[in-house]
Design a protein that fits this description.
heterodimer, A: 107 residues, mainly beta, 6-stranded mixed beta sheet, globular, B: 116 residues, 7-stranded mixed beta sheet, 4-stranded antiparallel beta sheet, 11 strands
């Protein structure tokens, strides 16, 4: 089993702010996913990481395998970024999910 | 853009009844998954399916649950005798490669199951 912790649990930001969401896990993994869950419940995959850093638009995800830690950054945040962001790790061919970070971006 | 579709979007059932949740994965994908999310809790992995058989399942996926791909397009999750604690949102996902290697997961919109 792999314990996945996310912080913060809740985050409120002003539009334009730089946002960081953190994820740590207890056991070495083969991959880590960042997911976005919309208010209606639908889930979208943002990134899959096994090492290093990935960037997509205003989103940046990094992973440090040695420290068992990943971060998701949002630059120039916008109200449409408001969602729950979920970290999920792949360990032993199974997924283990974090509890999610609820982000609200205020105009 | 190709998408994963799930039906029904919401089902209400009586305890003890059988429920079948249906998913149509993206057509060229080979790997299929079911996850569930109890209201207010985190998403949990249930089962993965490849080459017409279960490749991994979690502790949650007990004998009450089964999956099958009856016709090459649909991927179903059956709960034989529903319990109150089965009330949750059930998500189907598919991928064109083994997730832990390179694959991006594509999720359906979910099926909300309410057991009364």
């Amino acid at each position: 089993k792999n314990e996945v912790e996310q912080s913060p649990q809740n985050l409120t930001a002003q539009e334009g702010e730089f946002i960081t969401i953190n994820c740590s896990y207890s056991v070495g993994i083969s991959a880590l996913h960042w997911l976005q869950q919309h208010p209606g419940g639908g889930i979208v995959s943002l990134f899959m990481l096994s090492s290093g850093k990935k960037k997509h638009g205003r989103l940046i995800a990094t992973i440090n395998i040695q420290e068992k830690h990943s971060s998701l950054h949002i630059t120039a945040s916008h109200p449409r970024d408001s969602a729950v962001y979920i970290c999920a790790v792949v360990f032993g061919n199974q997924f283990y999910f974090g509890t999610g970070t609820s982000l609200t971006v205020i105009p | 853009e190709p998408e994963v579709t799930q039906t029904p979007s919401h089902q209400v059932t009586q305890m003890g009844q059988e429920v079948i949740l249906r998913c149509v994965p993206i057509s060229n994908h080979l790997y299929f998954y079911w996850y569930r999310q109890i209201l207010g809790q985190k998403v949990e992995f249930l089962v993965s399916f490849y080459n017409n058989e279960i490749s991994e399942k979690s502790e949650i996926f007990d004998d009450q649950f089964s999956v099958e791909r009856p016709d090459g397009s649909n991927f179903t999750l059956k709960i034989r005798s529903t319990k109150l604690e089965d009330s949750a949102m059930y998500f189907c996902a598919s991928s064109d490669s083994i997730v832990f290697r390179t694959g991006e997961l594509f999720f359906g919109e979910g099926s909300r199951l309410t057991v009364l």
